[in-house]
Structures are given as structure tokens and as C-alpha cells.
């Protein structure tokens, strides 16, 4: 029973880490292809067009 619980915990942890990693990777890829305007223009230019 304890072995089953520990395996279940490991599986849940692995799935959680995988989902977080894929989200971060997709976010990084999106920003390398299309960088946000704040980085090039600055926040002040965006607020006062």
C-alpha cells in the first residue's frame, strides 16, 4: 500500500513538472519568435501613444 502511494505521488510529481516545463518552453519559444513590444519600446511609449 505504501509502495503504491509513493509511486502515485511520483507519477503526479512527474506530470506536474512536465506540464510546467512544457508551458515554460512554449512561452520562451513564443517570445523568441515574437518578442514583446515593451522590451524594444519601453512602457512609457506604450502608455502614451
UniProtKB/TrEMBL annotation:
InterPro entries per record: YtzI-like (IPR047753)
Domain of life assignment: Bacteria
The protein's name: YtzI protein
Species, as recorded: Bacillus velezensis
Gene: ytzI
Amino acid at each position: 500500500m505504501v509502495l503504491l502511494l509513493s509511486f502515485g505521488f511520483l507519477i503526479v510529481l512527474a506530470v506536474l513538472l512536465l506540464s510546467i516545463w512544457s508551458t515554460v518552453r512554449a512561452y520562451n519559444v513564443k517570445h523568441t519568435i515574437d518578442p514583446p513590444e515593451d522590451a524594444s519600446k519601453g512602457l512609457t511609449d506604450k502608455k502614451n501613444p
